[in-house]
């Protein structure tokens, strides 16, 4: 048999063999490893919400300067997400994922030793570059390992580690900020980057990516390894592959990955995703990055503002759990639209409470509702995005969508800093609410449903 025939046969087998696997502790272990790296990433990024007020005070920054500093990591994420997607589709998921962890760890460490606000800004860009690399790769890895019947739930749960990491960052800052300062916190959060050695040892390369690039022997080795581990955990023989999933495999020109996301059925999906990511992240990061600092500006001391922000963020946990359940029961498209519309309404109400100096109980109640929908939005967005592209361009498509979102997250905190003096808190939260409404409209008008379908059925 010649190599192309063997590759075609193997490509058919890999998809069918993966999709028929039951979920066992082996896949859950792989998921947990990726999710742990994701958790530490979210801690590093979310930390700025809790230490921005301290940094602003130490360096004597204006609101606009503080907003620019808060946006620095998002500029790095913009560059990292686009770069990582292309690299991962060309060179593989696993090596790029490892490099991303090293970069964000180095960036966090250097932030702790920054001697000036300019140096801190540069190091935040480096930290953001590593984070931006990790997100589309982690999504692609989980999407390509977990079978269709469980894929949405697990990708949504993966995103759930974002609010957990955010809350952990707040709790860590609350207890440790008075002890070691914001510099010590950045240094401490660089340590988890050594987790890269666990990823290197235990997580395999995506067999879908290997077969898509024609790496017959490597794909066969990985599939045999995965099946052996799953069968051992399952405790009995695996079911036979579904013959309906056996489709001829066609290798794509790997030099035209970016062009493909703008061709055929993918062009409409790309427009929807880029619009949704940009406006969703514009609103989200514009508002949440400033939550702690805005409470301080309203007259609450640093420790109180951190504690109240942590309280508000707790609603993110039931938010992402509800979203993870709903997207498998109801579907990706309607759940995404619901979470965005809910975020818009809650953000507006929070802004009204903040702008009128309402009692803290009312402010926290509005904040709880806002974070419930915001983190629910994240769960669907991350589950939905990688499903809309084929394996050959999945990381590229997800990476550029995330990258465009980082343009929004770059603009959001800076825009809040510039507009806050004239618009007030009610005005800037209204701006965030409008951003979420535009994102919801894009999903409703342009989105397609992917619930319960294999990745190969959604795309071709």
From TrEMBL:
Topology versus the membrane: Multi-pass membrane protein
* Species whose genome carries this gene: Pandoraea faecigallinarum
Q: Which UniProt keywords apply?
A: Membrane, Transmembrane, Transmembrane helix
The parts of the chain that form a coiled coil are none
Q: What is this protein called?
A: MFS transporter
Q: Which residues form the Major facilitator superfamily (MFS) profile domain?
A: 30-451
Transmembrane feature ranges: 30-55, 67-88, 95-115, 121-142, 154-174, 180-199, 271-293, 305-327, 334-351, 363-384, 404-423, 429-448
- Please give the Pfam families that the UniProt record associates with this protein: MFS_1
Q: Which InterPro entries match?
A: MFS, MFS_dom, MFS_trans_sf, Sugar_transporter_CS
Q: Which GO terms describe its cellular component?
A: plasma membrane
GO MF, one example: carboxylic acid transmembrane transporter activity
The subcellular location is: Membrane
């Amino acid at each position: 048999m010649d190599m192309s025939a063997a590759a075609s046969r193997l490509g058919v087998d890999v998809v069918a063999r993966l999709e028929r696997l039951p979920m066992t502790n082996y896949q859950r272990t792989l998921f947990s490893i990726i999710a742990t790296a994701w958790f530490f990433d979210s801690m590093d990024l979310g930390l700025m919400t809790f230490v921005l007020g301290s940094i602003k005070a130490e360096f004597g920054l204006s609101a606009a300067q503080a907003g620019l500093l808060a946006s620095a990591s998002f500029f790095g994420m913009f560059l990292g997400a686009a770069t990582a997607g292309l690299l991962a589709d060309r060179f593989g998921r696993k090596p790029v994922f490892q490099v991303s962890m090293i970069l964000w760890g180095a960036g966090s460490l250097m932030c702790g030793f920054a001697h000036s606000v300019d140096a801190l800004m540069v190091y935040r860009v480096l930290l953001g570059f590593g984070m931006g690399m990790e997100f589309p790769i982690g999504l692609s890895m989980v999407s390509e390992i977990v079978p269709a019947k469980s894929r949405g739930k697990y990708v949504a749960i993966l995103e759930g580690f974002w609010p957990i990491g955010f809350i952990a960052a707040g709790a860590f800052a609350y207890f440790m900020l008075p002890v070691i300062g914001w510099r010590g916190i950045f240094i401490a959060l660089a340590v988890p980057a050594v987790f890269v050695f666990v990823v290197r040892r235990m997580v395999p390369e995506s067999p879908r990516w290997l077969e898509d690039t024609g790496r017959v022997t490597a794909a066969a080795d990985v599939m045999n390894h995965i099946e052996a581990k799953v069968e051992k955990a399952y405790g009995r023989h695996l079911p036979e592959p579904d013959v309906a999933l056996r489709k001829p495999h066609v290798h794509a020109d790997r030099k035209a990955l970016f062009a493909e996301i703008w061709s055929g059925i993918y062009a409409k999906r790309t427009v929807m995703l880029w619009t949704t990511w940009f406006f969703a992240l514009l609103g989200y990061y514009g508002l949440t990055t400033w939550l702690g600092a805005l409470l301080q500006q309203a007259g609450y001391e640093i420790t109180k503002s951190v504690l109240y922000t942590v309280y508000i963020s707790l609603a993110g946990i039931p938010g992402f759990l509800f979203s993870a359940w709903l997207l498998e029961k109801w579907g990706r498209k309607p759940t995404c639209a619901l979470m965005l519309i809910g975020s818009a309404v809650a953000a507006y109400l929070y802004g009204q409470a903040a702008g009128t100096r309402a009692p803290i109980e009312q402010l926290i109640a509005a904040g709880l509702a806002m974070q419930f929908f915001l983190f629910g939005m994240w769960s669907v967005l991350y589950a939905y995005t990688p499903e809309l592209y084929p394996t050959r361009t999945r990381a590229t498509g997800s990476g550029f969508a995330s990258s465009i979102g980082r343009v929004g997250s770059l603009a959001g905190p800076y825009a809040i800093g510039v507009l806050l003096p004239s618009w007030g808190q009610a005005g800037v939260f209204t701006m965030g609410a409008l951003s979420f409404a535009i994102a919801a409209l894009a999903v409703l008008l342009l989105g397609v449903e992917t619930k319960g379908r294999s990745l190969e059925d959604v795309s071709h």
